[in-house]
């Protein structure tokens, strides 16, 4: 199943189905998060794959709707959690994002994995900012 953080962008959904059409994929949107049987739906998955977008916004929505707890429960029941960009970063204790063109800031992730992940580490400005921030941290850090 594909869950995404890019404001329910149809292009992301189309790409997901194109890439995984032989695996019987499905997806959910923000509108599904408060469904009475959402825990049952998510627990039945093999993999929950979260796409890219705005991690900070996504986590606020998840917390507001209780979907963060749904995901935690699913993980404890053996559902594999995966993702790209924002969808990879959200599982970690600490997230580090571009606040504006000149500043970065840290915020709490779901805390299911120790440390921090930096998607788009190949971007030189992001890499320098993240490296400078990572030096000050006591937790482990993973670069991507």
UniProtKB/TrEMBL annotation:
Keywords: Hydrolase, Protease, Serine protease. GO terms for molecular function: serine-type peptidase activity. The keyword Hydrolase applies. One of its GO terms (biological process) is proteolysis. The keyword Transmembrane does not apply. Belongs to the peptidase S51 family. This is Peptidase E.
């Amino acid at each position: 199943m594909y869950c995404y953080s890019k404001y329910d962008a149809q292009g992301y959904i189309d790409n997901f189905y194109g890439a995984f059409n032989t695996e019987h994929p499905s997806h959910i949107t923000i509108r599904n998060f408060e469904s009475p049987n959402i825990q049952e739906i998510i627990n039945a998955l093999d993999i929950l794959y979260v796409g890219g977008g705005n991690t900070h916004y996504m986590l606020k929505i998840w917390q507001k709707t209780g979907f963060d707890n749904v995901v935690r429960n699913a993980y404890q029941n053996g559902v594999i959690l995966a993702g790209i960009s924002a969808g990879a970063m959200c599982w970690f204790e600490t997230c580090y994002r571009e606040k504006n063109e000149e500043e970065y800031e840290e915020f709490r992730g779901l805390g299911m994995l120790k440390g921090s992940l930096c998607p788009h580490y190949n971007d030189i400005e992001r890499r320098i900012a993240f490296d400078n921030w990572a030096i000050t941290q006591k937790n482990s850090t993973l670069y991507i």
